[in-house]
Amino acid sequence: MFSAFGVFLLRQFFLGLPRELEEAARLDGAGPLRIYWSIMLPLARPGLVALGVLVLLWSWNDLFWPLVVNTAHDVRHHRADTRPGVRRLRPGPGRAPQRLLPGQPRRLRHLREHRRRIPYLQAETAYLPMGGETCGANPPRSSCPTAMSEMSLFHWSYLNTDYHPDVINGWNTGGCLPGITRRLGYRFALQTGTYPSTSTHGGALPVRLTIRNDGWAAPFNPRDVALVLRNTATSAVYRFPLNANPRLWLAGATATIDQSVTLPAGMPAGTYALLLDLPDPQLSSRPEYSIRLANDNVWEAATGYNNLLRSVTVN
User: Fold this and answer.
1) What are phi and psi of 259, to 5 degrees?
2) Quick one: which of 308, 211, 294 has its CA closest to 257?
3) Could you give phi then psi for residue 20, rounded to 5 degrees?
4) Which three-class secondary structure state does DSSP give residue 120?
5) Alpha-carbon distances, residue 279 vs 157, 181, 284, 303, 306 (angstroms)
6) What is the C-alpha radius of gyration for the chain, rounded to an integer number of angstroms?
7) Residue 271 contacts by C-beta under 8 Å, 6 or more apart in sequence?
8) Is the sign of the CA dihedral 249, 272, 234, 232 positive or negative?
9) pLDDT tens for residues 176-235?
C-alpha cells in the first residue's frame, strides 16, 4: 500500500473529490481531522479498493514467479543449515536428509529436468531435425559409448565436425567416428524384394519391398518413391509412383511397400531392369539429391536410381 504508485494514485483520487464538500464541513465547524475521517476517507473507498487489488496482484506475482522457474520439489520450500562447506536440506515428510556440496543443488535440478524431458525429446526428434555440435571434452559423457547412445536416442541428423576438436579426435581414436558418420540421419537398406519375372503390357506388376532404416533419424523433407522400369535395349524409362512416405520410415524400424502397378497398354515388349527412385520432389532433375540405399552395387550416380538387380520380361 505504501509505495510511490499508491501515493500518486490516491493523490489523484483526492484531487477529483468536490472541494465544496470540504468547504461545507468547515462552515459546520469540522476540523481537518474530522473532515478527513468523516468525509474524504469514506469517499476514497473506490480508490483504496483499487490500490488494494493491485498490491495483492503484485504480491502474488512475487510468489508465483519463483514457483514457475523452480520446479524441483525437493528444494522449493526447504531451509538449509548455515554450516560452511556442506549444506543439509531439511526434508519434507517421508524424505531422507540430503547432504549437498556447495553449488550442487543447481546441478541436481538441471539433471532432474534433463531426465524429465528425455521422453519428450526422444518422441519429438523422431520427426524433427536434430543436430548441432559438442561441448568440450567431458569424459565419460563425451566418450564414444555415451555419445553414440545419446545421438541415437535423440535422432541426430547432422554434426559440426569442427567443434569441439578434442571430442571429435577422441571419437576418432576410440574408433566410433566412422560409425557416427555412417548413422547420422537416415540410412536405408533394402532387406527383401519380391517381383515377378514376367508381365504383360496393360497388365499388373506386383512388387513388395522391405526397407530398414539403420540410421538414427528419418528424412524430415518430403520424398517421392517410384518404381522405375528401364528397357535394357533402348534405355526407355517408365516411372510408377508408389504409395509410401519415407518420412515415416523411422530409425531402427522396417517399412514395407506392397503395391501393384499397372503397365501401360502401349508399353513395348522386352526386358526391363527394375530400379527404385527416391528423389527430392523439388529437385527431381538433380540425381545427386536422390536417396542412395546402403546396399552395395545398387547406386547409379548418373541417374539417382537404385538398381534392384532384378529384371522383368514384358510380353
Assistant:
1) -150, 150
2) 211
3) -60, -30
4) helix
5) 18, 22, 6, 10, 11
6) 37
7) 231, 232, 233, 311, 312, 313, 314
8) positive
9) 999 999 999 999 999 999 999 999 989 999 999 999 999 999 999 999 999 999 999 999
Q: Rounded CA gap, 147 and 167, in Å?
A: 10
Query: How does DSSP classify residue 80?
Result: B
Tell me which residue has cell 543449515: 81
- C-alpha cell, 146: 555415451
Contacts of 275 (CB under 8 A, 6+ apart): 227, 228, 229, 230, 300, 303, 305, 306, 307, 308
The CA–CA distances, whole Å, from 12 to 35, 47, 48, 60, 190 equal 18, 9, 12, 26, 80
Strands 305-314 and 270-277: antiparallel
Residue 14 is predicted with a pLDDT of 85
Specify the amino acid at residue 59: S
114: preceding bond cis by omega (within 30 degrees):
no
Helix crossing, 144-153 with 165-174: angle to 10°? 100
- Sign of the Cα torsion 152, 153, 159, 162 reads negative
DSSP 123: H
Condensed to tens digits (0 to 9), the pLDDT of residues 115-162 reads: 778 888 899 999 999 999 998 898 988 999 999 999 999 999 999 999
Tell me the pLDDT tens digit for each residue of 49-69. Answer: 988 898 888 887 777 666 665
Calpha distance 216→180 (Å, rounded): 9
Q: Which three cell numbers stand for residue 16?
A: 477529483
Angle at which helix 45-69 crosses helix 4-15, to 10 degrees, equals: 160
Domains and CATH numbers, the chain: 4-63 (no CATH), 120-183 (no CATH), 188-314 (2.60.40.10)
Q: DSSP letter at 17?
A: S
